[in-house]
Amino acid sequence: MTDERTMDEAAPDAVLAAFRKSIDNIDAALIHILAERFRITQAVGEYKAKAALPPADPTREQRQIERLRALAAEADLDPEFSEKFLRFVIDEVIRHHERAAAAKG
To answer: Please, what are the domains in the chain?
Structure first.
């Protein structure tokens, strides 16, 4: 005879495992998307260095933050979180652009 408690405990584990598999897939997609984003921004940094443009563009950054905060709100994601995440990415991109400018200078 099967113990009812054992079956009840097994079901949430299978559900949890399915959730975790989905999370793992999303995390992998995020990493690939970020890698592609940084490949493109690296090319932008090299272009800016060759064209003697500044590494940062505060006006564009602010427009992007506003745009992505609105997208986050539409997607039921905390706009503050999205801004912090984007700011982190932007700061890293600027650091790469500054490095590219220094290498050309």
So the answer is: 4-104 (1.20.59.10)
